[in-house]
Amino acid sequence: MTDLFVAAARLDTRTVMDAIPPSVRRSLDSSATPRPDGDDVVVELGPWTTRTPARHFVPSLALLAARAPSVRFELAARRAGAWSAWIATATLGDHTFAPLSASADGFRADIDEIHAVPPVDAIRLRVRVGGPERTAMFEAPWLVTVSAWDGATSGDVAACGVSLAVLPRTQMTEPDAIRLRICSPTSVGMAMEYLGRAVPTVALAEEIFHAPTDRYGVWPAAVRAAATHGLPGYVLRFPDWDAVAWCLGRSLPIVASLRYEAGELTNAAIPETTGHLIVITGMEGDDVLVNDPAASTTSEVTRRYRRTELTRVWLERTGIGYVFLHPI
Asked: What is the set of domains in the chain, with CATH numbers?
């Protein structure tokens, strides 16, 4: 089971909630108020109680402003009636926040994902925003989400036949220095263009790049970048194919993070990977329709993968997907 906790300001509640699968959807908090905290702006949310004890958490912020501020997510968790100390994810952006540990009481942040061992039954979230752009939190629309997952998956799906016309892009024709590393910006670019916001892949790569870890695939960094182009979004730990089918049925492609070893994914654009992102564009029978940016040419980007294999290399391993809303 996955719970998606949501808070928003200056966004239409129905529009936001109608873009979240009902199986994960929780009520939207529209009462949260940012407040100054020294040189930072902070939004404090929760406590949010999970329907089942949860093990994995992924937060995100979409601030619809022309320039993205620096942001850090800080969480505390409740287990057996006691709250942990606050811990912090990696900072997105170049602002320096006051130090805060990445682990406490069996609660640990790994760049952008928080793990709880043993699981916890409630969380609090602080979104800390810094830099010159921080004041946009008082004026611009924003969307905060936390995906909370209990560790169980299901490969079952009701009958579904849908195909979204997402224009293909390949990362392999981009500059040599980055082309093997930018599956996330390339996939995000495909989803954004489908939703009416076409941005060149290299430009997106610059916006998504996380310098401290030298990565282009930090999950909430993609949501942060898309928001500067007018697209709110969220990161979701998909629990099953029904949630996927629901999004596709509402013309919402999914940027999916997967990993697999040689032989695990038939017809794969690359034979194996420790981390790769693709765009899920449809489902037909036992196949999942995708745009895989690792294909050598644009004509080879669109392909089919077996749902049983994607269950293993995506749902059972990360299950992470970026979902972007239609422009608001």
From this structure: 2-149 (2.60.120), 161-324 (3.90.70.10)
